[in-house]
Amino acid sequence: MQPLPIAPPLGLYIHLPWCERKCPYCDFNSHEASVIPEMDYVDTLLRDLESDLALARGRRVDTVFIGGGTPSLFSARAIARLLAGIGSLLELSPAREVTMEANPGSAEAGKFAAFRAAGITRLSLGIQSFDDACLQALGRIHNSDQARAAIEYARAAGFDSFNIDLMHGLPKQSTVAAATDLQTALGFAPPHLSWYQLTIEPNTVFHKRPPLLPVEDTLADIQHAGEQLLAAANYRQYEVSAYSQPGYRCRHNLNYWTFGDYLGIGAGAHGKISLADGQIVRYAKKRQPHDYMAATAGLFTATRTELTAADITGEFMLNALRLNDGFSLAQFSAHTGQGVAVLEHRLQDFQRRGLLIVDGERVSASGLGRRFLDSVIAGFFPD
Hints:
- The protein has 2 domains: 10-255, Alpha-Beta Barrel (TIM Barrel), CATH 3.20.20; 310-383, Arc Repressor Mutant, subunit A (Orthogonal Bundle), CATH 1.10.10.
- It is 40% helix and 24% strand.
- It contains 17 helices and 17 strands.
- The strands form 4 sheets. It has a 9-stranded mixed β-sheet, with helices on both faces. A 3-stranded antiparallel β-sheet has the order 12-13-14, with no helix packed on it.
- Helix 8 links the parallel strand 7 and strand 8.
- The longest helix is centred in the middle third of the chain and has 17 residues, at 216-232.
């Protein structure tokens, strides 16, 4: 590996780990709490970031993403203090995208205008469904009326850019019901839509007590019907589960998928940084909020891994092949420090099998390759 000629774009991920009630499908680092030590946690986040400044090496941050948990449980005052502190420690792009995940509960929706005034430029609304029976099955604490109201609140607060998070393949859901859910979302003309299938993850309530999910044929019908609805409404799919109107793709997530760099602060947050010597490092912060907040300066990190050349190749493909447009070979070299020769044999093999399209300098998954994307990506990792 060689030092990268130009450092990749840099983002910042911030994890706020608390939620009102943990959903049975959720495998994120989230913790139920009735009282949140928000100001103490903000102070810890800023100490954590200060400890990581050497990793940023004076680079400008283009995007910020505040995830959770339920970040919108925090007060606008705490969010304003957090963003002001970040701005005092890092150089932020004047055109920065600052996304915060928010739930549709009325108490949170009522704070949307204050979040915008604090510096949030984009909301990601955890709607999941507009069907009350589905919401109940998913363990969500909001109802369909609150879901609809939250979207209107976001618009009224001045958020020109926002995302609706919507699931399909829900317990006992039919193709017609899933299509109705999606049509309801499209009726609000959201700038961005994350539309993805519910999956059962280890270490969740659903994994211990699986619900009755639609059969494979129904899931395939839902996917096909949904793609037709989205295309007819002029939403462009640019990633496996991401659709947007022109000009509203999520820049922060695009940075992940193009193997950009990002700092991670907060309990359980992950980061990925390209160092000046060409080494690429992944790290994770202490997972439990109590342990994280008790850490002293420089001791927030729980794990740190230096990626091997083979790991870097696999991880680049893991992200880039999720994009409908794929990647350029020049982009692979620029973001990995490796020559394209390391890919040639496998690219030729997958192209011969009809799984990848190699068009001059550009590589993307074919329609068949997207159906078997996990298998294609696995082919680029060490055995």
